[in-house]
Structures are given as C-alpha cells and as structure tokens.
Amino acid sequence: MKVFVIGATGVLGREALPRLREAGHEVGVLDRHTTSMFDAGRLTAALSGYDAVLNLATRIPLSARAVLPGAWAENDRIRTEGSAAVAEAALRAGVGRVVQEGISFVYADSGERELDENAPIEPVGHIASSVTAQHNVLRHPGGVFLRFGMLMGGAAQSPPVLVGDGWTSVVHPGDAAAAAVAVLGAPAGVYNVGTPVLKRDLGITRLPRAFGGLAASLAVFGRSQRVVSTKLTAATGWVPRAR
Questions:
Q1: pLDDT greater at residue 198 or residue 131
Q2: CB 58 within 8 A of CB 155
Q3: Of 59, 71, 83, 157, whose CB neighbour count within 10 A is largest?
C-alpha cells in the first residue's frame, strides 16, 4: 500500500515509519512547511494517489506543563479540527483507509470489570477531544479509531499525576505503532490497543486543591480501566511484544 503519515516526527510516528517500510508499504509524510493538517484543501492534494493515511499527530504537554491553563489546547485542536480535516481530505482524495490515534482513558471507571470497545465512556476535560476525533474519522467508510492505553517506555513520557488504586492499560510506543500498521487491513471501526492491564496501588485517591479546575481532567488517570484488546488481536493477529 501507499501510506501517508501525519505526525511522522512524534513518538508514534517515529516508531511507525520503519514498521511500515518493513511491511513493504510505500511511505509519504506530511511536510508541515508546505501543508497544514488543518487545511483540507491542501491535504486533499497531498493525499492524492495514496491508499491510506495514518494520523498519529499529537501535542501532549510534557511533565508539569500538563497542569497549566491552556496546556492541552493545541492537542485538543489537533484531535478536533485536525482529525476532521484529515477525514474530509481523505474522502475527497479517494483514500480508502484512515487510521486515527486516540486514547482509552475515555472509559468510565469500571472497577474489576473488563472493558471492550462497547463499554461505557465518560469523557471529561481534555480527553473529550479524543471522542470528537473518533466521530470525525468514523464518518469515513474506511475509518479506524485506535484507543491507545498510556504510552510507557521508549520516547514516551508518563503524565505528571497518577491517582487511585485500580487497573490501568499501558502500551509501548512500538507496540502502538505496530497496531496502527496492522489495522491497515482490518475492518473499519474502533479498536483498543494495550498490553495486559496492570494493577496500581498508589494510595493517592484525590488531587490537591491547587490543581483547581484541572483536577477532574487529570483524575481520569486514576480511573480503574481494565481495558482488553482482544478485538484487535482477533482481527489482525497483533500482540504486544514482551519488553
């Protein structure tokens, strides 16, 4: 396939490029100096002749910046306006497959229950933009939305605050990128992407008042989310590597 990658220099993009080439795909990347991912017109021209597009672009605020007012604004715009422009451009250009990155933190707290792709979601704060991105990409008949667990390892940085005692889904950036490549041949839809979930015992159940209005948004990292990726494995054979 001829695959166009948006976010090629990011944590996921850098892992995806060699995997795409190893799988025999021809790869092109977004040149941000000439084309904006928010410009559907220019994107349409850039995507002409491609079979698939992987939108792996994010702008996650690093370390303690995540708690600053407005720190997530650019990432939210990428997931809302950016995903809409990419999906629209792919339709105009006749691209058959669009893969959009997202997060599994949108699931409601589930205690000990396993969460598949049909489990209830509870998006609040900055994670709500991931749900908008899902709606945007699934308007495309070949749209695939990936709900990634927390990226751990490699070039990924953990969020500055973790609270709660419960289950959490994590995934190495390399495994996440491998999933994005694997779904190029999978049925359209939503897929969880994570390793066997881990049980936390952090002892912190509430954020300090100093976090103010961001407390609700950051508290999602403390939800007990026993996410399973059996649908992805059944559809593609993807399994996380031991690391």
A1: 131
A2: no
A3: 83
